[in-house]
């Protein structure tokens, strides 16, 4: 039997809190899970600094990747049971696409590193490019497994993730506005944070999902289930992913890495005992895939723990703030109140803070849903519903709820600053009372405002 | 208002997946949570290597400690609502004990470090002693918070954890056979592994729990709920905590640290870039509390990642096996089949493995329940039930189920060895076929057996 | 101790699948639950014909009433813990209002009878008026319990339900757009149908709810939790409460009772054995409260079972259709396609059905949320959120989602007709083929359409 | 295509709170669900009087029957996926048995009537015999559907339920100590009562279940999951099914029907308006299947509501006690204290109660698990586990927990008597004080005791 058809004598399962069991039937899938690169995902938290706001959210990308695989597997099962292709080109499901779909699902996030968003900002890496590199580079175990299927299989799997794979059904299973990736992370993040907002009816969505010639569509009967999913997604964004405390911890992380990068230049590595061995290639801008694969969340915090003892007070203070979870405070602003920020920055400077490292502007925006717009840089696949006579309608044309948020950004702009500006200790207050009093005039109801005349 | 009575203007909550909300009303509690020592628990997994078997079990001791606090808080609420003391010595609940109970609950595990069980085995630390040290040592933030309540308050909190505190109700809330600690970890571990075995009826247990002069007892009506809790506990032990794969990863960890300790002697620290800076004090046997508090799970795996590149092949191989999750295999044995182990060890050696690092004997035993036995080294507080007329009966005298497991150990003894002995690759098989064939004759149905005569 | 202050020696609990435990502390509440009128609610399903679509939805008004009581109790607890009144008129919570609030919560639905909506349509009863009658009429056990508190207590409780009670906080707990009633039924109906749409974050809503001088408001931090509740409510309406199959069974019930009423006139009661003894007062239009309290769901179906044997074929057929769940089919229409209905009715008549009994027009509309509009007949209390400085904002002004559905009706208009028109049996098809073919031209994608020219 | 192979074009689902979705693929199954006899199960509560103790337990036999069908379907799916037969007689699963298994699962309880246990006691019916009658009698819709598969198909389905069907795998799916029936009712009853005791790991049990030549066995790996199921079952019995309040309501029901049967003799039917038309055939002992199928829970309570107005005070009082839920009290007794019951009965009589109708002795016993014992009247199929080498071991030989309860009866014997004996009203107390005082000397801690000498 060829490797790609090698079925386990008895299906293997992984116990999963979200999907109960994850079922593995192919030897290829089991081998991919057992690679070094995939196991590394056990050491990278799915939500980064969010666990500092919602302490339950300590789950890693490992479980999420298994979950995306499992949802994809269930979609394939449903498609094969109810919509198997009969004639090539009939727009129904061709089950010979199953393995490429499952592999792409499992590996779609394999390029993530520790605190990806911040890491990419400081070190100019790109987790999507690294995902493709891990799949296609001959040095990885992942690539070695995939190549056993066929020499061009790694490239096929990569192309699904890059959305250039010809079968749109496979591509949309993994990435579209209602795909296995999003469905898993909403449920998983909701489960682990202990919030209910992300809960939607997965079984029903899977049931109304169906293949057609243009990719994936949904039975019209399931319109409200799809609508409910969009609403859940919206709620997770505004309540969890955009939480100001998590973003504030991300700001600290960003400034901490920035500071370290400035200090650990090739010419300036006096104290080798405190030297962040595994990070140096990134500080120097000379890293390769092997260096990248040695990193995980623990690497970062290990060096932070070392940096606590640094003589650089900014470095040691920011490291302590991150490890001990001392968030910055923040206030919302809009286009108008934005002009007041320099004034605030000025006051913060006067109170003794280096504003480069202790303040930041941070946006969090997301489009909860968008109908197709060819003018966008990254146009999204819109959600289509199939009526009983086979015709399609776009979701926002029949859902007034979805229509209300289509193409509108959610989120806010915030200015971050030291907690001390709002809640000084008594000794601080003594020193800088007029500054604090002035600062507070600009903040009302969590927003930056033009103060009233005295 | 004195610090110990300082109530937050509005109660603060932590969203928790197990208890929904954790409610904080005292400023003292909030300050303790915000200490450096307590925040560090976010970086120490509750179940160590178990997450390598049940991938959902990535939760940390941080959430567990909050959970124990919350259950204790609910017990106090119930006691105060239904059984408030009227006359000193009436055996009912004196609510002035609440703060010491809450602090002890929150801090009972503060001395845990990374992979405690193994770490203690190799480095001869003791998490209980360290817990007491963190609470009573003036250098910690925890101690500084507690001292603000009163100079003797740290010692009082420590004595609850040491079970020497005079009020037995407070002691038994935190440690007895059915205490806030066990109740939280069973529910939390069940939630995160995604298994159902640990689920018991917390609300009902809390409802039937009541204070009496000898400590804590349970209304007789709740007998079956208590029984069900004992059964859940039993199931969690045999199905989760004693899982052979997790124990096998613990064996690898143990051997890896042992090997590193042998290599990184003070005289032998050639390669400083690969030197495990934060672990050195432990290798040297000269660590203090400050050194200990710098460690977490990430420290360990960061050094493991560095060790992958070591020239010592045992060190690098064991590090890779741990990071990439390559468990050993194992077989059960009993007193009789134990004698066959030297023969197996011999074969493993012949197949090219250093048996010091690649084999191990490991027991996992627990007493699911025990009635009081003064002859034991650590006699357990037995579970008593109160009848309507106020008389007490011990649980195992009225529950045939509990009686069936009282004082009986659960668990097994296993011999661990390289997976290759059972499932060699084709190249390995070629080299050592007769050895493998011989080895397999000793293993049947997951047990070591005396092979049949040929 | 006066009756109104009589606290149970130990609180009593009812195990509840939605709220886990329902806690009863007052003797008055326990006595009310034990009245004949309240126990009768065990025999009246909460959702009537919905259980014929979602078979899990067999729960009764008994559990719902306990649930509304429990949520109200928790609101009172939170208000008393965090917002107790200090000075009369300070807009905070006066806990002496607790008992009237709890009684009104428990009794708010006590006047419901079997299949209320249909029953009221045919027999011109009104469950709200009957609720008030049960509370205030000296003949009921409920009234006797309430009168023991004080002579004017029944009237006070009734006035809360009638929304004329002076304390707006108490009134809004029980009836407003986000009250204990709605919160319980959404959660309970979701639990029992097994759908997830009705799930919202009750604990969080309760936490952000607070009293103010104008009634009840919500902390601004909880805006998204409130928004999520509105969305859940919307989903429950469109997916559960307005389900066409349940409405179709309601149509059959309506027509069946209508037919029975026409047959069982005082002059025409030939067959006393089949006579619906307990319904006769309603057929005759001469019923009193006592007659009403003898009815429940079982009364109705018992007579339906008898009517199966009736010589009146419409009566016996409709009874069988109801008992054996043979729903009508339906199609949506709008203002334009409405004009086609007479043509459809004509065809149905030609196919042999009496259209009076076998067809119906049915609307299901609901306002998912409405800001206050003084021009409405029943203006709704709008949802206000309190900002940090104490000022209030109305929900739809800050939530684009809520704004999108504010004041817009959800639901649809449907025309109901016999299933046979769409799916005739082969013998029926033989007889009326051209009629069926013609009929089907008017139906497309579940809507009535103007057929295309042939 | 023959009727038995008729697959629905798209699988139909029923939303179920326990199993999420119930999937129907065969036209035969859908037709069976739509029969009059099956729909009737919607009007018969699964747990009878238990809903008077646990108000959530209002679910009916309809949902349970669907659930048993669904679990059976999943077992078949798993068997077909992992253990399909290759050679006749190889002991693996032959999927041509699927339809008979599914039909038997769906119909196994079709013969249940209202409050079966009590009904059978008074009217000498037998729900198992009626199940067989409904399946095999040509007058039922169920039989008509089954006969379309083949003339002998009804008999085959019946023989599965009667355990005479030759394929033991099919028989044991539906009835054995760990079958689809038990698994569904434990989960469903736990869900609806809102208790957690019945929760066990269904997915894991289904995964370790496998066919063998002797019927059904379980992989040894799943031993603890099976053990946990047995424990859950035990807990449900002792905590839910044997609850004294439910049993007390059953006693009242029994005595009420007994009284009615004595009154409504053929010669004594004065008041036809109050005559229980549908019950008369049972009072007269001359009923047929058609009469039986007209009854449901509502029939009973409708007549009880009528009987409230009866001139017979025992009849009207017992009817009111049942409808208004006024349970009797009870006390446990054992072989020794049994002798005291006549003395208690005497006192009850003296206090004015007719002991025939107001007292009762009631046992509730169940064997939580039994190894096979050929001496028993109804020997149970023991639970076997399959080791890796294919050999079987019986559960209780390897589980000390199961061994502890094997063959031991659980439950208790209780004596039921009027609540007034323990808690007389003040007027009653005045009349009979010495009697009550004497009675209370015999009751301690919920048990009948030999009173202490005065």
Instruction: Please name the fourth-level CATH homologous superfamily of the largest domain in chain A.
Output: Hypothetical protein af1432
CATH C-level label of the largest domain in chain A: Mainly Alpha
Main β-sheet description of chain A: 4 strands, mixed
- How much of the polypeptide of chain A forms β-strand, as a percent range? 5-15%
- Round the Cα radius of gyration of chain A to an integer and report it: 25 Å
By oligomeric state, this entry counts as: homotetramer
| Overall mean confidence score, pLDDT of chain A | 92
Largest interface: A-B, 52 and 51 residues
Which blocks of ≥5 consecutive residues of chain A have pLDDT under 50? Answer: none
Write down the domain tally of chain A: 2
Question: What is the 3D form of chain A?
Answer: globular
What's the architecture of the largest domain in chain A, going by CATH? Orthogonal Bundle
The separation of the N and C termini of chain A measures 84 Å
Helices and strands of chain A: which structural class?
A: alpha+beta
Strand order of the largest sheet of chain A: 3-4-7-8
Number of helical segments with 4 or more residues of chain A: 22
CATH topology of the largest domain in chain A: Hypothetical protein af1432
């Amino acid at each position: 039997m060829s490797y790609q058809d090698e079925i386990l004598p008895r299906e293997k399962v992984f116990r999963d809190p979200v999907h109960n069991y994850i079922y593995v039937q192919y030897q290829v899938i089991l081998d991919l899970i057992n690679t070094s690169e995939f196991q590394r995902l056990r050491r990278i938290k799915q939500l980064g600094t969010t666990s500092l706001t919602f302490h339950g959210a300590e789950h890693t990308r490992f479980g999420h990747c298994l979950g995306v695989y499992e949802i994809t597997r269930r979609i394939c099962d449903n498609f094969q049971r109810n919509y198997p292709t009969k004639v090539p080109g009939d727009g129904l499901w061709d089950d010979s696409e199953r393995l490429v779909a499952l592999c792409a699902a499992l590996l779609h996030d394999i390029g993530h590193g520790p605190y990806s968003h911040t890491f990419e900002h400081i070190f100019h890496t790109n987790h999507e490019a690294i995902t493709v590199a891990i799949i296609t580079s001959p040095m990885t175990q992942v690539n070695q497994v995939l190549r056993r299927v066929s020499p061009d299989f790694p490239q096929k799997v990569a192309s699904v993730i890059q959305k250039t794979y010809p079968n749109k059904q496979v591509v949309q299973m993994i990435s579209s506005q209602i795909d296995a990736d999003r469905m898993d992370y909403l449920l998983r993040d909701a489960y682990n944070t202990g919030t209910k907002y992300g809960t939607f009816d997965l079984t029903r969505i899977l049931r109304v999902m169906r293949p057609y010639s243009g990719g994936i569509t949904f039975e019209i009967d399931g319109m409200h289930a799809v609508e409910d999913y969009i609403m859940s997604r919206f709620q997770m964004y505004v309540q969890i992913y955009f939480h100001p405390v998590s973003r504030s911890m991300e700001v600290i992380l960003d400034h901490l890495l920035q500071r370290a990068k400035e200090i650990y230049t090739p010419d300036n590595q006096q104290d080798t005992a405190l030297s962040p061995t595994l990070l140096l290639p990134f500080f120097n801008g000379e890293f390769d895939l092997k260096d990248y694969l040695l990193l995980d969340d623990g690497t970062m915090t290990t060096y932070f723990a070392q940096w606590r003892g640094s003589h650089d007070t900014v470095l040691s203070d920011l490291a302590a703030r991150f490890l001990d979870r001392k968030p910055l405070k923040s206030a919302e602003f809009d286009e108008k109140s934005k002009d007041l920020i320099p004034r605030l920055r000025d006051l913060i400077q006067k109170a003794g803070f280096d504003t480069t490292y202790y303040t930041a502007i941070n946006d969090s925006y997301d489009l909860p849903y968008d109908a197709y717009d060819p003018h966008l840089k990254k146009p999204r696949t819109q959600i289509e519903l199939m009526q009983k006579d086979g015709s399609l309608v776009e979701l926002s044309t029949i859902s007034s709820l979805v229509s209300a948020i289509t193409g509108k950004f959610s989120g806010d702009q915030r200015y971050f600053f030291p907690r001390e500006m709002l809640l000084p200790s008594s000794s601080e207050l003594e020193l800088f009372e007029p500054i604090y009093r002035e600062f507070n005039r600009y903040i009302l109801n969590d927003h930056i405002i033009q103060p009233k005349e005295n």
